[in-house]
Amino acid sequence: MGVEVRVEGLTKSFGSQNIWSDVTLTLPPGEISVLLGPSGTGKSVFLKSLVGLLKPERGSIVIKDTDIVRTSEHRLYEVRKLFGVLFQDGALFGSMNLFDNIAFPLREHTRKSESDIRWIVLEKMDMVGLQGAEGKLPGEISGGMRKRAGLARALVLDPEIILFDEPDSGLDPVRVAYLNQLIVDLNAQIDATFLIVTHDIGTARTVPDNLGLLFRRHLAMFGPREQLLTSQEPVVRQFLNGRREGPIGMSEEKDVAQVEAEMAALEARGGDQHNGVGPKGASGGDAVPPQLEPSPGLPERQAQRRRQERVARMLHEFDPATAQAIRASLPEDLLAQADAGVFAPTPLAGGRHWAAESAPAGGAAVLPGPRGRS
Ligand SMILES: Nc1ncnc2c1ncn2[C@@H]1O[C@H](COP(=O)(O)OP(=O)(O)OP(=O)(O)O)[C@@H](O)[C@H]1O
Ligand SMILES: [Mg+2]
């Protein structure tokens, strides 16, 4: 089963440039989470911090009882083996063919025989649609193929935590649809904890259990996908609808008067409901489309029931629109329990959207800025 990742009060700067402060969230075990955010808000820096490649100056990242911000190099090396990571640039070795690139973690971290390695590598290449390309060098293949080679390499060690940094960038829309299905299928097969950074709103709407948004050096929101998809928070709505009007500017933040004027003009045109379909799968309104399911013949996602129980406990914390969207995803038995008051109300937990049973269960994070309706 995937492991929980607990991030608390995380702050990262490079010299005098603060990237983000006080990021607190928990990736529930085996669930799929998506992290969104304007370019340059530090999504890649966040992923690199999770694997211990960058050192945040404050806060903690606890994985299997180890705070990897503070642990020894030796322990960090061990914890890293839990991760499968696809970096934004793919990071393949240019002088090695795809087979050797994908085999690299196995040769580095295991004592498997070459025949076992061959079997695993070919299986993963098949999984991502690269059969027959073993002998190609990274320079000889398309950008999309390099991406998928990076995916295959991220999977060879049977990771318990999977981090994908824009796995869909540079892929055509059909490949993105296949990739999204692959992610859900993988999750059903290995029950690992996924965190995916993407700019594709179609993916963000349909793939994950949880959604988060980084903005202005903070985690603006992190919670069940229904929470963000129904949110009235201006920055969340602007991002999910892929429009110019709102707090996010081209290169920097806009001033309040400008945002207010833009929003008034938008309302006069009918608001987001009349936005039509924006770039990268962004769409008008706050509908919550069904979540993608594993392909026929695959097991159910083990995280599904855990997630249903988790959000059933949190129902009372959400505004009516979010609660209604979540209820639509719950089975009868959990709805009945929630309505019978079986789940004791839990206090909000300072931005953590979820905590293990022993700790006070978490509230919806809205940090900082206006609380809006969310
Ligand atoms: N090693 C580093 N040293 C100094 N600054 C860095 C380093 N890595 C990243 N940065 C800075 O941190 C900020 C966030 O970068 P990051 O790559 O995480 O953004 P991002 O959200 O992933 O953007 P995009 O959506 O374009 O990929 C940028 O201003 C970048 O210049
Ligand atoms: Mg990035």
Automatic annotation (TrEMBL):
It comes from the Bacteria. Gene3D superfamilies: P-loop containing nucleotide triphosphate hydrolases. The keyword Transport applies. InterPro entries: AAA+_ATPase, ABC_transporter-like_ATP-bd, ABC_transporter-like_CS, P-loop_NTPase. Keywords: ATP-binding, Nucleotide-binding, Transport. GO terms for molecular function: ATP binding; ATP hydrolysis activity. Residues 5-241 form the ABC transporter domain. Residues 270-309 are annotated as: Disordered. The keyword NADP does not apply. The lineage of its organism: Bacteria, Bacillati, Actinomycetota, Actinomycetes, Geodermatophilales. This is Phospholipid/cholesterol/gamma-HCH transport system ATP-binding protein.
